[in-house]
Amino acid sequence: MDTPQITAPPCARPGGSPGPNGGPRDATPTSGVIHVNTRHNSGFTVIGNHLAQHHELSLVAIGLAAHIQSLPAGAKVGIKVLTDRFPESEARIAAALRELEAKGYLHRSRVRLPEGRVVTRTVSYNQPGSTDVSKTPAPRPRPAAPPQAAPREPVQPPAPAPAPVPVPVPAPTPAAPPSPLPHPHAPAEGLHRTAATLLADLRRHAPELTLSEGDIRALTPGVATWLERDAHPDTIRHALTADLPVPLKHPAKLLRHRITTRLPAPLPGTADLTAPRRKVVVVPLRNCETCERAFRATEPGHCRDCRTDLPEAA
User: Fold this and answer.
1) pLDDT tens across 118-158, in order?
2) Domains in the chain and their CATH numbers?
3) Bridge partner residues of 286 (DSSP)
């Protein structure tokens, strides 16, 4: 009787698990990411998984590190340049650069060139700790201009420059004293009470215009002058609170200036608005001394016809 031959099942594909009958299972995952890879022959950058899958760096920092590693040597990687290149703000890009510095993917320092110019030196590492910063090449200085050929004939030394004439500095002009605060012509208790109430109420419309009792007493005559000239309280409030400077350090001085310089002119009276009547001069009637004919004249005498027959008129 022949010995039975036992046949082993075929091996499963790497990364897969055996099927229900012991056969190979399909290696394509049923969920998650599926990679479709194409081999790059040019224009690519090798990024390590220690960077692409870093557990502590933010997504902005990982993407920024990949972008910096793909740039050629000498490319500008300042915050202004990166902000113009990407939609992220300056604050997010600056924070991402600090993350990369903390994890050793980036090193920035200020270096003074031989000609005295200070530049920012940025070193990018595709593997943190692989190269010491001190061993990286220093930036090359700009080539110096070639020396000019010496003149064939001796050059005469330049004449000494004349000593500068001191220019007298004008004395500072003293500041003009502030204009006096206006006062009403006929002070009334009602005007002053309304003016004081209006000044105390300004802080409800502009909190920076909170005045002390002394400031209110000092500014009340000026606001009373506005009320005496028939200015509406809303007009006064708008003139004192509109377009306030920021920050406002001296509210009482600002109000005093506005009360004085923006004081409206007095309203004209009704008689001032009426056009003056034209005065009509009436020449009186007179009788001619010769013919008794009536004629108009300022003084008594002869009419036009009789004046030509007189001997003295001939």
Assistant:
1) 888 888 888 887 655 444 555 555 555 565 655 566 667 77
2) 49-130 (1.10.10.10), 189-261 (no CATH)
3) 295
